[in-house]
Amino acid sequence: MLVSDQGLEFENEILQSISSILGATKIKTSSYRPQSNATYDELHRVLHTMFAKCVSENQKDWVEWLPYVTFCYNAAQHASTKFPPFFLYFGCMPMWSIHLILLRVQNNESVDGYTARVAEKLERVQNLVWHNLNDAWSVSCKWYNRKFKPKSFEIGQTVQVYYPGMYRGEHLSGSHITVL
């Protein structure tokens, strides 16, 4: 699934062709409604917080920090998946500068063996990610449902229905209806 806003950079032949090849469904968010894309709103909030820790006071050097901030974001374990995005995408943990210093020569593994090992590892991780996301979803549901109180009505009971005004200052009173 591909989620984007309605920017023209996302409405082009190349992106449509790639989506078609990958079998991705394209979904557009509502115009001028950032709430409809809450996941990316949260990403931007986190990135802004990370940039605030390292850019200079005049904020003109943020471009120099961009590779480092995105690397750290992608190398950090995320609460919902319990894995870093880098690992989920590449099937291995990212190499930090200390790894380059301490690099060890690994055994000469065949390409087929390496591919099979990575595919097996990613399959196990995918199952764990689904489990972790399900746990995060359950926690969110419990949090939401703690305030939810179901209402039930009896046949023949009169109830009041609230119709809010369409414009500022307009107040419409509720009307009474009978449950059938």
Structure write-up:
The protein is mainly alpha-helical. It has a domain at 1-32. It contains six helices and four strands. A two-stranded parallel sheet has the order 1-2.
Order of helices and strands: EHEHHHHHEE
Strand content: 5-15%
What is the strand arrangement across the widest sheet?
A: 1-2
Mean pLDDT: 78
| Unreliably modeled segments | none
How many helices? The count is 6
Shape: extended
* Structural class determined from secondary elements: mainly alpha
Q: How far apart are the first and last residues' alpha carbons, in Å?
A: 42 Å
Number of strands: 4
Largest sheet descriptor: 2 strands, parallel
What is the alpha-carbon Rg in Å?
25 Å
Helix content: 40-55%
Give structural attributes.
two-stranded parallel sheet; 180 residues; mainly alpha; two-stranded antiparallel ribbon
What's the short story on this structure?
By secondary structure, this protein is mainly alpha-helical. It has helices spanning 13-22, 38-52, 62-75, 85-90, 97-101, 111-145, and strands spanning 2-4, 26-28, 158-161, 175-178. It is extended and about 80 Å long.
